[in-house]
Amino acid sequence: MTPILDAGCCILRPFRPGDEESVARHANDRRIAMHLRDRFPHPYTLDDAHEWVSAASTLDPVTTFAITLPGDDDETVGGIGLLPGSDVERIAAEVGYWLGVRFWNRGIASAALRAITSYGFDSLALERIFALPFATNAASIRVLEKAGYIREATLRRSAIKEGVVLDQAVYAALRGEWRDSS
């Protein structure tokens, strides 16, 4: 069964062929890429979108979702996903997300994060879901806190982006403590 997650102001559904144009259009913004891992390219081309949608649309179980808006012709305006751990860390997953700039500051990312967190606990039997935003990324930190994630630590000088060494914050939600804060 294909999971569709209704987050109120947005809907999460698996990526599928046909999403490439809207993914490339909304992802191709340096303001997005500068806050994400280097594997998220900039510029973000249609070829990048084809590669991503092809890979993401075959995941089983589904761990990566397109963010769409109700009544918006099912256009993909962002993405959110869980990267499950392995071996002894198989009970945990890292969450990552991005949203097209024109959709920022509407509560969409927090709603999507709450939905995928509940999905991770309920459907994937995860015990821990965590995020590692750059400590300078106030907007992403606000999304995590608004969604109910708790700051656990700062990983000092743990990442490099565009030649700058950065701290990362550690935010997590735990199965036994999770309460959807919507």
Provide a quick synopsis of the model:
With 182 residues, the protein is of the alpha+beta class. The chain contains 5 helices and 8 strands, in the order E-E-H-H-H-E-E-E-H-E-H-E-E.
Tell me what you see in this structure.
With 182 residues, the protein is an alpha+beta fold. 27% of the residues lie in helices and 30% in strands. It has helices at residues 20-27, 30-33, 46-56, 108-123, 138-147, and strands at residues 5-6, 11-14, 64-68, 76-84, 92-99, 128-131, 150-161, 164-174. The protein has an 8-stranded mixed beta sheet with strand order 1-2-3-4-5-6-8-7, sandwiched between helices. Helix 1 crosses helix 3 (46-56) and helix 4 crosses helix 5 (138-147). The longest helix has 16 residues, at 108-123. It is globular and about 40 Å long.
Compute the number of strand runs.
8
Total DSSP helices? 5
Shape: globular
Find the structural class using helix and strand composition.
alpha+beta
Radius of gyration over all CA atoms, rounded: 15 Å
The span between the termini is 26 Å
Mean pLDDT: 95
Query: How much of the polypeptide forms β-strand, as a percent range?
Result: 25-35%
Strand order, sheet with most strands: 1-2-3-4-5-6-8-7
Q: Let me know the largest β-sheet.
A: 8 strands, mixed
List unreliable stretches of 5+ residues: none
Q: Share of helix among residues?
A: 25-40%
SSE run = EEHHHEEEHEHEE
